[in-house]
């Protein structure tokens, strides 16, 4: 390496003759002109500040690259964790749903600020997370303009982020695992949250293995036990049919508009075990609603709610393929006469949205999850006793789906058919609803006795 102390720092040039404004830092090393382009003046200033500090410290500069030896060492060690995490999010953007993008980013809001070196003038974690959330973890066209302080925070993060290669060290991975084990406020994180963030870190490192940056996933070598998450339904949340009917009858009494418009949607969750986002995208063409007898729903899509910055359309709701199903794959659910009648009544009263959706606001929009919750909690207060309202019984609209699946299983419907209607695999169905399969013990014991007597 050919090095020198002959360094002269120049000015930052603002170029406006390009599609994107560019700020170019210029300096000379051993008489040779050097330059580096940045998106913002703040980043260019931060880079020049690093050069200035290295020169003041009497550091040697590499003649070929123009960088101080310390910066050259960092550059030669491969991408930083921050750089690789950005690339990971953007690489997956076009193939993931809005909620997945948001979940990925949420994990990285924890990991990126934790995996940094001891650089001076560290911004607060809240400031670093905000820069990541509104700018750094989004595609170029979706990034918000940064304030001067936010630009400084982004520059600090770019300089301080550890090289990705350092994640092969157990002590560095321990820092990451400690970070995902607490909330942003510093309290212990929920088991499901910890497991989800750990899975995202593992998947990110699998991408690094794929790109030959690691020989194997270093996280596999860490002896760390994830907290045990609850994966079964609590029977205390499950209503019986009489309670479900009383709750549904109370829904139209909540508010002048929302309650009446949401009764049939909640009924779809209970009588057809639809997920709320599946009910939100239910269209008239998906329904066979005879005047008498059973009907049929053929689900095509779901309409989950997300944050605007993560959706393709920039809207909070957008139509997506069904959960755990391939694009354009459908799911058939026979529906009982009581639900057929409710849907016919709802359509006669409110019609459909322009795109054929059965459940829409008065202006054709989609009710938010907070609107669902508001109406549902109002219905619980009207239909249940104070003790039941304070309990977990049907605490969320989603619990109606759990009640439906539990009812089907306890009625003796074969598990494969229940799984087919609910959109589960059989093994997941039996594991998740194991504690809700009550009332069959004597029947099962009898079958065992019969087998033993043969």
Describe this structure in words.
The strands form 4 sheets. The protein has a 3-stranded antiparallel beta sheet, with helices on one face. The protein has a 3-stranded antiparallel beta sheet with strand order 6-7-10. It has a two-stranded antiparallel ribbon with strand order 1-5. It has 3 domains: 3-76, no CATH class; 83-221, no CATH class; 237-436, hpI Integrase, Chain A. The chain is built from 18 helices and 10 strands. It has helices at 41-56, 69-76, 81-92, 98-114, 125-136, 148-160, 170-180, 191-210, 241-250, 258-271, 276-280, 337-350, 369-383, 386-390, 399-410, 415-422, 426-432, 441-453; strands spanning 3-4, 7-15, 22-29, 32-38, 61-62, 287-288, 295-299, 301-302, 320-321, 331-335. Helix 4 (98-114) crosses helix 7. The chain is mainly α and 454 residues long. The radius of gyration is 29 Å and the shape is elongated. Belongs to the 'phage' integrase family. Residues 309-327 have a biased composition (Basic and acidic residues). Keywords: DNA recombination, DNA-binding.
Describe the structure in brief:
This protein has 454 residues and is mostly helical.
Task: Provide the fold topology.
Elements: E1 3-4, E2 7-15, E3 22-29, E4 32-38, H1 41-56, E5 61-62, H2 69-76, H3 81-92, H4 98-114, H5 125-136, H6 148-160, H7 170-180, H8 191-210, H9 241-250, H10 258-271, H11 276-280, E6 287-288, E7 295-299, E8 301-302, E9 320-321, E10 331-335, H12 337-350, H13 369-383, H14 386-390, H15 399-410, H16 415-422, H17 426-432, H18 441-453
Antiparallel strand pairs: 1-5, 2-3, 3-4, 6-7, 7-10, 8-9
Helix pairs in contact: 1-6, 3-4, 4-5, 4-7, 4-8, 5-6, 9-13, 10-12, 10-15
Pfam family, one: Phage_integrase
Region (Disordered): 307-327
InterPro entries: DNA_brk_join_enz, Integrase-like_cat_sf, Integrase_catalytic, Integrase_recombinase_N, Tyrosine_recombinase_XerCD
């Amino acid at each position: 390496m050919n090095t020198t102390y002959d360094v002269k720092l120049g000015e930052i040039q603002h170029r406006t003759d390009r599609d994107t404004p560019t700020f170019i830092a210029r300096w000379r090393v051993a008489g040779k002109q050097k330059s580096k382009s940045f998106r913002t003046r703040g980043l260019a200033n931060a880079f020049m500040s690093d050069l200035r500090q290295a020169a003041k410290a009497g550091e040697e500069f590499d003649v070929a690259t123009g960088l101080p030896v310390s910066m050259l060492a960092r550059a030669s060690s491969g991408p930083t964790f921050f750089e690789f995490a950005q690339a990971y999010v953007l690489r997956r953007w076009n193939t993931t749903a809005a909620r997945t993008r948001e979940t990925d980013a949420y994990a990285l809001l924890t990991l990126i600020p934790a995996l940094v070196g001891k650089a001076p003038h560290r911004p607060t974690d809240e400031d670093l997370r905000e820069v990541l959330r509104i700018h750094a973890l989004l595609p170029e066209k979706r990034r918000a303009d940064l304030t001067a302080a936010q630009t400084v925070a982004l520059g600090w993060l770019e300089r301080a982020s550890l090289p990705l290669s350092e994640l092969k060290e157990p002590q560095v991975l321990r820092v990451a695992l400690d970070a995902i084990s607490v909330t942003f406020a510093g309290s212990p994180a929920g088991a499901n949250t910890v497991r989800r963030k750990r899975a995202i870190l593992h998947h990110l490192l699998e991408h690094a293995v794929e790109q030959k940056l690691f020989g194997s996933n270093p996280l596999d070598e860490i002896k760390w036990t994830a907290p045990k998450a609850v994966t079964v339904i609590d029977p205390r949340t499950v209503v019986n049919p009489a309670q479900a009917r009383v709750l549904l009858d109370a829904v139209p009494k909540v508010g002048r508009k929302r309650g009446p418009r949401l009764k049939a949607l909640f009924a779809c969750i209970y009588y057809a075990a639809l997920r709320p986002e599946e009910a939100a995208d239910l269209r008239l063409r998906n329904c066979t609603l005879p005047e008498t007898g059973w009907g049929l729903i053929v689900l095509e899509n779901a309409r989950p709610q997300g944050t605007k910055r993560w959706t393709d359309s920039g809207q909070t709701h957008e139509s997506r393929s069904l959960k755990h199903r391939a694009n354009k794959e459908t799911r058939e659910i026979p529906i009982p006469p009581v639900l057929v009648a409710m849907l016919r009544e709802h359509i006669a009263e409110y019609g459909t949205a322009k795109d054929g959706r059965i459940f829409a606001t008065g202006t054709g929009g989609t009710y938010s999850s907070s609107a669902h919750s508001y109406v549902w909690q109002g219905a619980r207060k009207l239909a249940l006793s104070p003790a039941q309202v304070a309990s977990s019984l049907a605490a969320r609209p989603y619990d109606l789906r759990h009640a439906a699946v539990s009812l089907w299983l306890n009625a003796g419907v074969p598990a494969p058919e229940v799984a087919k209607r609910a959109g589960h695999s059989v093994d997941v169905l039996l594991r998740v609803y194991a504690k809700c399969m009550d009332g069959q013990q004597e029947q099962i014991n009898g079958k065992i006795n019969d087998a033993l007597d043969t």
